[in-house]
Design goal:
- The protein is α+β, with helices and mostly antiparallel strands.
- It folds into two domains: 46 residues, no CATH class; 323 residues, no CATH class.
- The protein is 32% helix and 20% strand.
- It is built from 15 helices and 13 strands.
- The strands form three sheets. Strands 5-4-6-7-11-12-3-13 form an eight-stranded mixed sheet, sandwiched between helices. Strands 8-9-10 form a three-stranded antiparallel sheet, covered by helices on one side. Strands 1-2 form a two-stranded antiparallel sheet.
- Helix 6 crosses helix 7.
- 43% of the residues are buried.
Length: 383
Amino acid sequence: MVVDKENCCGCGACANICPKQCISMKPDEEGFLYPATDREHCVFCGMCEKVCPVIHHTKLKARREEAYAVRHKDNRVRDNSSSGGMFYLLAQHTIASGGLVIGAAFDDDFVLRHKAVSDMDDLMSLLGSKYVQSDTQQIYKLTKESLQSGRQVLFSGTPCQVEALYRYLGKSYDNLTTVDIICHGVPSPLQWERYKQWRTSQRKNTRMVQADFRDKSAGWRHYSLMLRFDNGSIHKGIAYDDPLTKAYRMELCSRPSCYGCPFKGALRMSDITLGDFWGIEKVLRAMDDDRGTSLVILHSEKGANLFRSLEAHMEAAEVDLNEALQYNGAALRPPQPSERRDAYMKDMTVMDFGDLTRKYCSDDCFTACKKLVKKIIKKIIRR
């Protein structure tokens, strides 16, 4: 088993595969899940190591990846999606064929977990980015059972979760389509919990009823973290300034393994990779209206065939993959941790979130002045 935290991505495949069920995923002091083994019942079969996507990371051979800029033709779908609505199209098609869509969704307590949905009403919970690591629970086991029953399955997750699924399955399935995302890294679930508590404490006797990490009411580029509470109040923080997303951008809170992620690169095990098409205004200006454009990378014949079967519902234009990735560095390179990352994570467990933010996320004088000048210019332009 992996013993170094830098080499455990928290995918949970080991806990799913254990024949004696003696591995469970337990949070550490930073809130990230790691496997804990009940040695008394372990039979040392080695299955946990065999399914580990870090220990047995697959070296892929070059294929002809295709890249596309995509927008759903229905703007209402795009408004409820992180970018251009491509995942919605894939999921809608799967559900219409009687299949299962598997992805990350918040439960009633806003804990992020992987789950399976089979109708359009539940699908909405899977849409949109969530900047926190998901608990996969027993999702690989459920996926395998569904595939063996002959059901069509669309599985979505981070690149490490998709590779973990393939290692767990041990064989290919014609009725499985996998989608991974361009992942910048996964922040701590404990940090999200502390942040929720802080925002709720600012509104006494309230409960959070909605969380949208990518509210695009001010545009795709200037999205906000929006929280809605049962007393009708709303918090909306621009991503560049909200304490939670700002700490993420400053590389203060991602999982240790993310900083050496082996799953980066244009080649992926998934059938399809999805992400925001940052830089679309430079690559293909006609596809940029600031409502969100998806970058879609096709890796397999299965993924390409599915994509083309949905072309009637989208605006799509093929682009040069290397040019697209030039503006989407998170697809190719892991993030670099801040020198203050460990100190931030330690203080995060004990400090008031407001004090934590002031200590670690405050702008220096130059940045503060730069932001002020931008605000003044925007006000002048609006007059």
